[in-house]
Amino acid sequence: MNPDINVIGLFEGTSMGTLIAVGGMTALETLGIDISALVAGLGLSGFALSFAFRDAISNFLAGKKGIVREIKLRHTILENENEA
User: Fold this and answer.
1) Integer angstrom CA distances of residue 82 from 3, 30, 66, 67, 69
2) How does pLDDT run along the chain (84 residues), one tens digit per residue?
3) What are phi and psi of 77, to 5 degrees?
4) Structural domain boundaries in the chain
């Protein structure tokens, strides 16, 4: 799969989620509901999730494919499909 398509899908999902969250908070604010605690909670949740998933997201965005030739303590040696 093309890594550019993965990145576009990631940004598409992120922007859609952000738009829905902001729209929902704006609607609640318009109805007179105090959303300051909700905004603070979402900020802390986003901060915690970003640290929890940073390695998985970086691996996903790297998009490396190939055959594992050697696994060492600090790195892995891959042979890509063109070299095989």
Assistant:
1) 17, 57, 9, 11, 14
2) 565 677 788 789 989 998 998 999 999 999 999 999 988 988 898 899 888 888 877 777 777 777 888 888 888 888 876 654
3) -100, 120
4) 3-79
Six token digits for residue 34: 């105090």
Residue 54 gets which letter from DSSP?
H
Residues 3, 63 contacting (CB under 8 angstroms): yes
Q: Which two tokens stand for residue 22?
A: 């902001």
Kindly compute the dihedral angle of the four CA atoms of residues 19, 22, 27, 30, in this order, to the nearest 10 degrees: -140
Q: Is the pTM of this model over 0.70?
A: no
